[in-house]
Amino acid sequence: MVKILGTAALQDSGIDIILQRDLNTLIKAGELDNEPRDISWLKEQIRESIFDLYAIVHRGDKKYCFGCIQSKTSIRDRVTRDREPSMQAMQSFFWSTIIVLDGEFLKNPKFITMVNGGTSEHQHNGWHGMYVFSDQYTQDRIYPLDIDFTTFKRHAIEAANYWLTQRQWFNMDWKASKG
After folding, report:
1. Which of 62, 102, 106, 113 could form a disulfide with 119 if both were Cys (CB 3.0 to 4.6 A apart)?
2. In 3D, which of 23, 14, 168 has the Cα closest to residue 93?
3. pLDDT digits (tens, 9 = 90+) for 79-105
4. pTM value?
5. What burial class does residue 176 get, using C-beta atoms within 10 Å of its C-beta: 0-12 exposed, 13-18 middle, 19+ buried?
6. Is residue 161 classed exposed, middle or buried when 0-12, 13-18 and 19+ CB atoms within 10 A define those classes?
7. How far apart are CA 57 and CA 157, in angstroms?
8. 129-132/95-100 β-pairing
9. How many other C-beta atoms can be found within 10 angstroms of the C-beta atom of residue 69?
10. Reduced to 3 states, what is the DSSP secondary structure of residue 21?
11. 71 vs 60: CA distance, rounded Å
12. Does the pLDDT at position 110 exceed 60?
């Protein structure tokens, strides 16, 4: 569902949301134009089945994987397991996001700090952004997600442009603009 809705929202933006198996196909066919260190890192993520989806940006006749996406019905206590790979993706200069259908778990402040950081237990943010099908849990890096993926689309385009032009600064501190 996330792949279908995300790709539909990003139509005409030069960005596709693809499944892990599709990324593997692109890599094996030599159709991905990322640097060799990226390809090696992405292969490791595929082997470990870390991320559900990936974001691909087309620039001219080249394709680059710039984003890693986790897609969950709900997170609850699994968020700890999902947070570490996301932080590694951000440290490897990839856009790392998570899309969640059920935001009920965000009633617990622990989960909010796991996303946003800023506490002694969770000093750093766990994702560049969490997109939740609910507006009642919006806070800092937690964004509402409507059926048209409006906010996600805006952020994906911004992330892709930043990744293409200023990747050396695309670290875990990067945050999409509010506008």
Report:
1. 113
2. 168
3. 678 899 999 999 999 999 999 888 888
4. 0.93
5. buried
6. middle
7. 9
8. parallel
9. 26
10. helix
11. 29
12. yes
CA atoms within 13 A on the CB side of 86: 27
Spell out where 47-110 has E strands: 53-59, 62-72, 95-100
**CB distance 35 to 66 below 8 Å:** no
* Cβ neighbours for 20, distance < 8 A, ≥ 6 positions apart: 46, 49, 51, 52, 53, 54
Nearest to 3 by CA among 18, 14, 15, 13: 18
Separation CA 20–CA 1 (nearest Å)? 14
pLDDT (tens digit per residue) in 125-151: 888 999 998 777 788 999 999 999 999
- Adjacency order of strands within the sheet including 62-72: 15-19, 53-59, 62-72, 95-100, 129-132, 142-144
Cα distances from 138 to residues 1, 74, 130, in angstroms, run: 22, 16, 9
Does the CA dihedral 86-67-48-36 come out positive or negative?
A: negative
